[in-house]
Batch of 2 targets.
Target 1
Amino acid sequence: MFPVRLTLDPAFRVGPVRRRTFGSFVEHLGRCVYTGIHDPAHPTADADGFRKDVLELTRELGVSTVRYPGGNFVSGYRWEDGVGPVEQRPARRDLAWHSLEPNTVGVDEFMRWADLAGVEPMMAVNLGTRGVQEALDLLEYCNGGAGTLYADQRRANGAADPYDIRMWCLGNEMDGPWQIGSKTAYEYGRLAAETGRAMRMVDPGLELVACGSSGVVMPTFGEWERIVLTEAYEQVDYVSAHAYYWEEDGDLGSFLASATDMDHFVEAVTATADAVRAHKKVDKRIHISFDEWNVWYQKRAESKPPTGDDWPVAPVLLEDRYNVADAVVVGNLLISLLRHTDRVHAASLAQLVNVIAPIMTEPGGRSWKQTIFHPFAQASRHAVGDVLQVAIDAPTYETARYGDASLVDAVATRDPETGATTLFAVNRSLTEPALLEVDARALPGLRVLDATTLANPDHTWSATADDDTSVAPRPNTTAEVRDGRLTVQVPPVSWNVVRLGA
Ligand code: AHR
C-alpha cells in the first residue's frame, strides 16, 4: 500500500458545480434513438413509443442536458423531415452512418422525451449541407410564439407553447474530413458568425456553441480554434471540445491517465480563446462546451458504419461494452471536467443509450447499466455547491502516452450552505492499493457519511443484461475521520466517493 497526502481547503475553490457538466447526448446513430429511447413495441413504451425503463435509468443517471440530434448525423439532417404526421414523413439515407433514417422521431418527439426525462435540450443546427436560413427556420419552429409559418406549424403539430431552447450548437465537428460539408476554419468561422448573428437578431439571449476542432489529435487543433474564434468571437459563448479515449495495445497505464490529456486539452483551448480575447481587447470570455467525451474503442469492427446497398434502420453501431477500467477512466474524466469548472461550463457524455453509452437496451427487451453508469450517476448526485481543487502529493508513474502521471487523482465539492463535502478519487495503480491521508482540518467538524468504491480484482469485468450489479459501487468501510484527518484505503484501478458531513 502506498501513502498519498491530500489537502482539502475551502480556499481552493475553483468555481460552482455546474449542472450542465452532467449532460449527455442522443444522436440519430445506430440504436441510440430507435430501440434505445424509442421502441413502441416495448412493454414499457408510453403512447409516444418512449421506453419508460430507459427514462427511469436516464433520471437515475442524473443527466442535466441532452445534445440532439447529432453528431455527424446533423450535418446532413433536414429537420422538416421529422415533424408533422408520422405517416407522411419521408425516409432518407443518412450518409454519416450509412443508415436509413425513418424520421419517426423528430424535434417534437425529442422535446416530449426531454420533458419526461427532465433534461434541458441542447439543439444542434446543420451547418454541413445547410446554412443560416435553415438554422433560423428551426429556431422559429422551436422557439417562435405564434403567427409565423414555422411557429404555427409547431402549434399545429401539437406543441402550443414555444420550447424556449437556450443552448444551440452551430454545427458539429466541421473540420472533420468525414463530415458532410466539412469546411476550412475560415469558411466555418464565417458561417458560424453569420448564423449566430442572425439567430441572435431573433433572440439575443441564446447561448451559442461554435465547433472547436474534432479533437486534440487533429492536425487542425489549435489553429482551428484560433481562426474560428477570431471570426465568431462576438457571436458565440462557447467553443466545443470533443475527446474520446481507449486502451490501446494493452497499455492500461496510459489509458488510466487519460484525464491528464483532458486537462491539457482544456487548458490549451482556454489559452487560445483568451489569446483571441486579448487580441480583440474585449471583456467577454469564451467558455468550453465539452460536448462529446467518453471512452470509445474506435478500432473495433462495430464502430465502422455498415457498407453495401442495404441501408439499415438502427443498425448495431458503436455498442462498446465497458469494463471496470473504463469506468475508472470515466470517473477520472469527470474529475477533470469538475476541476475546470471555471472554464468548462457544459459537457456531454457521448452518448446516452446503446451507442458508446452508459445505458444498454435489448430491442423490445431488457435494459441495463454499464460500468460507466456508476461514476457518472454518483458525480451527478453528489457534486454539489463549489468545486474545490485538491492538493495531491502522490507518487507518479511513467506512461508511454502522457509522460509521468500521478498515481492518484482527485477533486472535491462542498456545499457552502450545509458544509456537505464529497471527495472523488481514482487510484490508477494497476497493482497497489493506496492509503489516502486527507488533511481536512480547514473544514472542521466533518465525519464520514458514507464511502463507496468501484473496483474488481478483474478490471476487465463488464456488465451484461443478466448481471449489471456485480461491480456497482460498494461500501468502503476503511474510511474514517480523526482530528480533522480522513483516511481511506482505495484498491488498485478504482473509483471512490467519500461523503463527509457534520
Ligand atoms: O459520438 C459519435 C460521433 O463522434 C459523433 O457523431 C461525432 O460528432 C464524433 O466524431
Note: The first strand starts at residue 2 and ends at 7.
Target 2
Amino acid sequence: MKTRMKHVLSFILIAFCCAVSVTCANNKNRQNKNTGSLVVSPSQDNTSEAKKLAEGLRRKGITDKRVLAAIGNIPRHKFIDESIREYAYLDRPLPIDKGQTISQPYTVAFQTELLQLKPGEKVLEIGTGSGYQAAVLCEMEAEVYSIERFQDLHLKAKETLNKLGYHPNLFFGDGYEGLPEHAPFDKILITAAPEKIPEKLKQQLKVGGWMVVPVGGRMGQKMTVIKRVSKDKFHESEHGDFIFVPMQEGTEK
Ligand code: SAH
C-alpha cells in the first residue's frame, strides 16, 4: 500500500480511538532559543496554525498559560508524515510509524497541565513516540528525559527534535524500568497506558513529586495522578477517561 494511503487509512482508524480524551474531549534542552541562528523559528513556520490550535485548547478548558504558549510555539507538522500534514493542526491524534500515535493535542495539554511543571524541574516521559510531547516539556524549560521502546521511533524523534533545536535526554529502552541512574524525578509523565501503576517508576519519584499516568486496559483508562507524599506513602486521584495505546514491556527495532 502506498505510504499516503496507509497513513490516511490509519488516520481514519485512530481518529476515534487513540490517545484521545473521552471526556471532551530547559532551556537546557533547547539551544539558541533566543538567537534563532540554529533553530527553525516557528515564527516562519506555521506559528499562526499552532497559535490557533492553542486558542482552541483554551476554549476547551486548558488554563495553564505556559502549556498553551508551548503548544502555540511548536510546529506539530514536523512530527508527522508529510502525507498527513493537512491534519497537523487539528485537535486529533495522528498515526506515526510502528502503529503508534502522536496524542491528541488536548490530551497532551491536559496531561502537561496536571504536571504543573516549574522551570528547571526534572521530568521523565515514558513513550517518546514522535517527540512532540518532549518538545512541549522542553518549551516549558524542564530538564527532560524521555524513553521509547521502539528503536526506529527513538532515532526519528531524536532527529526531529534536534533539527528544531530541542535537546532533551532521549533513551531507547523499556519505560517500565525507568532510569534509575538519573532518578529521582520531580515529575513522571506516561504517554502510553499501563494496566497497573508501574511500581519501579513510583520509586523513582522524589518525595513531593508526582506521576501522571493513564491507567487501565485497552477499552479505556483513568487519567491518574500519583503523589509521593513521603518515602512510603502515595496519594492517588483520578481525572477523567481517556484512550491511549498500551504500554508494552520490552523493546523492539
Ligand atoms: N508522547 C508521544 C505519544 C506517543 S504514543 C508523542 O508525543 O508523540 C505512546 C508511545 O509509547 C509509543 O511510541 C510507544 O511505542 C511507547 N511505549 C509503549 N510502551 C512503552 C514502554 N514500555 N517504554 C517506552 N515506550 C513505550
Note: The first strand starts at residue 20 and ends at 21.
